[in-house]
Specification:
Elements lengths: L4 H16 L1 H28 L3 H9 L4 E4 L6 E3 L6 E3 L14 H4 L5 E13 L4 E8 L12 E5 L7 E5 H7 L6 E4 L4 E10 L8 E4 L5 H10 L12 E5 L8 H9 L3 E4 H5 L22 H33 L1 H9 L4 H33 L1 H8 L10 H28 L2 H6 L10 H23 L2 H26 L8 H12 L1 H35 L8 E6 L2 H4 L2 H11 L3 E11 L4 H4 L9 E5 L15 H7 L2 H8 L2 H7 L12 E4 L1 H8 L4 H8 L4 E2 L9 E8 L6 H6 L5 E8 L1 E2 L12 E3 L1 H6 L3 E10 L6 H13 L4 E5 L8 H29 L1 H9 L4 H48 L13 H21 L13
Length: 949
Amino acid sequence: MSPFTGWRAALRIARRDALRAKGRSALVVAMIALPVLGVTAADVTYRSAYSTQAEQLTADMGSADALFSDPGIGPLQQMPDGNQYDMVGDTAPEGDVPPVDMRTAFPEGARAITIRSVPASVTTAYGLANTDIVEFPTSDPMARGKVDLVEGEFPRGTGEMAATEPFLESSGLHIGSRTTVKSAGRTYTITGVVEQPADLKAQKLYADPGAVIAPWQEAADRDKQVLPPNAGSTEWLVKGAGAAGIGWGDVLAANKSGALVVSRQVVLDPPPDSEVPLARSVDYYNGSGDSREVSTALVTVVAMALLEIVLLAGPAFAVGARRSRRQLGLVGTCGGDRRHVRAVVLSGGLVLGAIGAVTGVAAGLLLTVAFRPLIEDWAGQRFGSLVLRPTELLVIAALGLVTGLLAAFAPAIVAARQSVLESLTGRRGVRRSSRVLPTVGACVLALGIAVAVYGGTSGDSTMVAGGSVVAELGLLACIPVIVGLLGRLGRRLPLSPRMALRDAARNRGRTAPAVAAVMAAVAGSVAIATYMSSSLAESDYDYTPMLSEGTMVLSSSDAKSAARLPLARASVERNIAVTGGHADFSRVWAGSDCNVYYAEDDSGCGSMELVKPTGKGHTCPLSTKGAKELAARLSSEEHRKMMRSPACMDEYISSGSFSSEANNIVVGGPELLHTYVKLDDPAATAALKAGTPVLLNQAYAQDGQVTLKAVHTYNAKDEKNRKLHPGPARRTTDRLQVYVADAEYAATPGIRMILPQRTAQRLGLHTELTGSVYAVPHPPSDAEEQRVSAAIDQVGGGLWLQTERIPGDRESVILLILTLFAGVVTLGAAAITTGLAKADAEADLTTLSAVGAPPRVRRALSGFQCVVVALTGVLLGTAAGLVPAVALRLVDLRHAMAAMRKEPMESAFTPIVLPWATIGLLAVVVPLLAGVLAAALTRSRLTLARRAG
């Protein structure tokens, strides 16, 4: 007799049982198919988004055979891929190297087109915007793959341009709009929308060669007030004369002329090292990287995903086996033994696993194809093609099949242990909970936490991953005991929550896996969210702003443009939402202005210095002798406090937003203090009004005074001031009484001391109105900035608007996706458990109705059953997720401390920040939503059924 005969019968029984219980079968298939779908979509997306070498070459050079450029070093040698090159010989050529005549470098019969870009200001629907204009014949067949047409037509002629979609969205223009290049004074019509497949977010304009740069240069030659174009170097796309393309011999010949060549044929089929002159003197870099950590993380993620599916699907198989216990008992009466019962239940896992695996792979492929444009837009690049690797897809499907078998394994063992009599009569029997499992689980949990923490402190991320998985498995083993303890919490609760807690404790085989599944999903989401929130907090801490938060600065370049500040201010206040009025500021200098006379002859210009005292509280100990020895003794928190002290903060915060002078002294009044510094102290305001400077960095003060040294040097060409100050340069040292601000104001970007106007005049210093500061509720939009830029250009230019765009919400989308993922799994697990509880407890619900319980009790019971599973799983998952997150941050801390001890001025701040928004949504909103949905979707009245037995 064939050994497969029993399995064939078991598979037939499983198939019929799956068709008979369509709802439960669909639920299991969905639980298996959804992760398979996600992994399939991720695999295809990753393989498709990863550009091959050939696709990268197409993005760089279109359909051309080679990209030629002139590095400006004369004859050279290069590697086949063009990433490394060097001049021929050991001696650099004297003087400027003449540009290469590329006509002599191209192979005979080759055809070439040029690429050259220039930054420019162009008119928009809102005003004026800065962008890059690329002179490139986009209509040429060689441009395909580098620049592609999306809509409209390619530009043809010198009066037309094409634009990328991001530029059109930012500027408010469209096909048919006209835009003017301000410096060139020429207007162009936008004829089409193009895209760079390798960079879909690029904001650029495209014109034919000679359409922009040449007319602009001619305008600059005619009018000296027009700045010439700051065009980049020219590159050439070259198509060979024959089908062979550009070979290595052609590259070597072009190198002799001084041209650097990236050839498609050479890169894809490189010559041997013996034919590459530069290969003998260049060390190859192995960019394979350390794949061990990636593999470890990948295995961990796959293992936890499989575990989660097993935990979710397992209770469904258990309830299915329980509801089919009479059928399984009949198998025993017909001569079947325990292995046949196990085969029937396992066949259910095999059938549903196969259906789920095939459905998941197919749905993953279809969804990837359907949402390909959205995925490409999100990734910022076009896929070369959808890459399908059959081996990987078969492995993914096999994982789904194995998952179905694993989910049915435990229910199969339990079903096989039941006697035929228990199966036929429906009696469940009484089994005491194991005391060994929770004890072992607690030990494994402690061991896993210890391993993860040790890995964190020793800097071993592999141990962190392994310890985290072990700790989570240990916590999984403890869940039945935790669920059992829930029943004791309901003694004084109302009927419905009391019954829900006791039902969860009594049916641990159903409740514990669902709680564990929620825990696994929430643990992963909380771990990633905690690590990302902590890394983001570290990044924000290390970020050095150019302006104070919530401010923007309108600045002028010279005295002539400063005279136009009133008109520019009116434009700002008309087009941008500002809070309150403006605060003017002036720059201050001694002697002749170095901004005007810095490039003149040896007579030079003046200088001014705010002297920093030495000693404790003034000199930063991390930048002096013995700094490394001190850093070796500091903890991370001690180092952070020292770095944030006024003495050390001055070493690495030297923003010049208000002046090109390094002393960061600004002339201003109380308005500047309130608007920009955010110092609302009446004493500081009174000090400025009385002519007393306000010092923001207390490290420069000694006994409430500062020392200001000035060298009043007047240039011979500064005739006006030279007449007023004849003779040799005058040196002054003044001790000024100052108002010393608190230590926190030392971090104010761009300002070290605010000097009153009359004090500057008393000291013989020169001042000039430079700009105005505004408080804004949010950074201005592109349209608002373009309107202001246009208004400034209309009044004569020479002014610009500075805004601080702090990179906030950088990871908010990912955190939201993680929260939604954990929330959906939590809702799904809670709904599955509630549905199984209803199916498994029909007798109890019938008894409730029989004893006169109100109909709403049934709804309330379902709702609280859902809340119990969701809330318990979320709380345990949050605790479990903190273990790997904290351990990985300890790894980061170890690396940061090592770097800080080598370079004491490097930050070692490695915070651990909990994502309270994510935790709050998961711990409060999701359980309540699960309970409400369960109660709303449950029927109040029970359908009458015949008496059992």
